[in-house]
Amino acid sequence: MNNGTQAGVKADWRQNSIYLVSLVVAFVGLINSYPSYWIVPRMGPFAPEIVRPLMLGAAVLVVTLKFSFAVGWAKTRPSLKNTGLAIDLLILTVLTFALWRFSVDMLEMVDSMVIFDGSHAAIALTASAAFITLCWRVWGAALAIVGMVILFYYFTGPYWPGIFRTAPFDILSASAEDLWFNLGEGVVGGITAILIFTAFPFVLLGAMLERTGGARSLIKIAFLLTRRLRGGPAHAAIVSSALFGTMSGGAVTNVLATGVITIPMIIRRGFHRAFAGGVEATASSAGQIMPPVMGAAAFVMADLTEIPYVHILIAALIPALAYYASLFASVVFESRRLGIEAVADLSDTETDADLVVHRQDYYNLILVFVPIATVVVALLYGFSPAGAGNIALTVLIPLSFLNPEVRKTPILILNALANGGRQFSELLMSVAVVGIIVAVLAATGLPNDFTLLVGGAAGTSLVFTLMIAAVAALMLSMGVPTLPAYLTVILILGPSITELGISVLVAHLFVLYYSVASSITPPVAIAAYAAASIAGGPPMLTAVYAMRIGLVKFVVPFVFAFYPVILIVEESGTQFEWLPFISIMSRLLVVIYLVSSAVIGFDQRRLPIWEIVVRLLLGVLIIITDPLIHWSATAFAISFLAWHVLAFRQTETAENSAH
After folding, report:
1. What's the pLDDT at 37?
2. CA distance 583 to 494
3. What is the dihedral of CA 247, 250, 256, 257, to 10 degrees?
4. pTM for this structure?
């Protein structure tokens, strides 16, 4: 057997192993979660002392196989291949033993006390280090570095100056319990439990939609419905990314699933490559703030805040629709700038033949809308979020046979489940590090110290506090998946925001928006870079376009922070009234028009710099809470826009007369 054949066999063995273990993750999660809603909530048939380490162990095996140091270094640093293999085996050994000891000791604690000693502390520290290493390997350095810094602070806290100094503690017993041997906090604690027992079905739902034909048909029909609009495929990208993104819950996953179809179509219509990538990245990232599913973060929010999930969906609806309206407006202004006109017939475009809508595509829409409707109905009937997700998954699997491709190749369902298990395994690595952060925050009281620090910097000003929180959220979230980013930021900054009278729901939605926005914010705009790789445009320019197009995403959180009435539900901290609601909604539409045209630099004609500045300034003044200021600014803005249109028409008439 030659070297090429040997390499192929090894690659096949590794890929097959990843596939099989990912399936194990999917099936163990399903077996554990399905009965949990009529036996014991969030327990399933297995005790948490067993199922949590079991799921974590299987996920570690998947990630170690996929992101193997040995395989990676064999390609880039052949001399270090054996060293990489040793690291892989060391990580597997350490975590297997640590997870086994977790199960044994935690089950023993049910009947008797366990005294933690040096061996427990060593297990906790080495296991934490191993998970930080795997998180770095899978998700990059950002979250892993935060985990290392927070661990350093945990052990050195008694020696820090001022308000950051922590009380001395017994390093052996405290670190063992805080970081590892704990069902409430730590790596195997409550955050990991929420992901396993609550978010898991929706990870599988997103994978099923991607692999069983629903997502592609959704894009094709969205393009058909928007073909008469100037933006055409750009509008289709917005619609399809919103609907698919709410189920998939991942900005990069959404870009890769829908962008491979939409981005080339947007480019062929005449848009710049960077703009095409920016539209897809912005729309894909916003799927996570779009009801009715909102990815996994909304379920975690419901658990953390103890606010009914349905109320969170209702609260998130208006801000999400406002944001997507701004995306549509930005595409319209860019189309005007480039002189792109609508195309009436699909056949008139340079669209690929396989993107023409067939009857089967309408049938495939059932695979998208029925699961979404199932989730909503189940929630309204009182099922928990995970219960609704499990019911939707149960409905989707047999429905997928409506697609002839699935009937022809039923293994596509297993492939989808395996893909969901792999995505879940990778997400668990980041959440494990978040578990470390949660444990340290709880043990040291750092959020309270941070609240004092922010309060000292911002005083009693809600605006400055929110601005500090927004900047910190963007910095802490860069390069990190939305769920762990949201968790990290809300645990650190949440008390600072609520201290000034903001409701818990508003604080969590504020942080979620900025955690999502980080995926399109340079310099670490992961969704924009993924879109740039498809579009073939400059990554940084794509990120700049994405941030410009999505500028309203940075404004909307401030709007519902100062006008919580648009969240509708009572948990927003204010009583819903129609007059204030209509007031802010009408002004928000004006803001969307002003900001969207300003970021593109075009309305009826190209905008000079001074007019861009005026529009942005008016957009800020319109959302100020003082009625005298915001109504004066609104009146001036409407007059200003009317003047712009009138001046353009007069100029156009004069030019036509001259010709």
Report:
1. 42
2. 29
3. -10
4. 0.80
Q: Phi and psi (nearest 5°) for 606?
A: -65, 135
Domain boundaries, the chain: 13-425+525-566, 577-659
Which amino acid is it at 633? Answer: A
C-alpha distances in angstroms, 40 versus 48, 69, 184, 526? 11, 41, 18, 39
Q: pLDDT tier at 458 (50, 70, 90 boundaries)?
A: low
Distance CA(57)–CA(54), nearest Å, equals 5
**Nearest-angstrom CA–CA distance, 515 and 509:** 10
Q: pLDDT, tens digit, for every residue of 294-345?
A: 766 777 788 888 888 888 888 989 998 998 888 888 888 988 888 877 665 5
- For 301, the token pair is 């929010």
Contact 39, 45 (CB under 8 A): yes
State the average pLDDT over residues 85-99. 92
pLDDT at 111: 65
Angle at 261 between CA 260 and CA 267, to 5 degrees: 95
- Helix and strand totals (H; E) in the chain: 30, 0
Mean pLDDT of 398-407: 86
Q: Among 535, 541, 546, which residue's Cα sits nearest to residue 264? A: 535
